[in-house]
Input
Amino acid sequence: MGAHIVPPQAASPPSNLPPAQVARIAQAARDFEAMALGQMLQPMFDAVDTSKGLLGGGPGEAAFRPMLVNEIAKHMARHGGLGLARPVMAQMLRMQEAAGNNRSAE
Output
């Protein structure tokens, strides 16, 4: 078996927000990327003929397929994904910092 290689996680952009808030924003950005990946993967899985597969398809397999797609998407996002999480996080940080600056200027 080959070694499992996890790409290095990019450092989060600098921010003047509290670390707990930055962590919540980072998680939201990762969740967004996983959701986007799931939306991209779903049509691929819809096109697979499961009746000839190991488990034979059927309503039980169809019921669990969305969960499988979501877990595959989460795994992909945790291991580099498409690179969406970092720019989404950067934009979310800018928006939160701007909102905080606007509140303090009032």
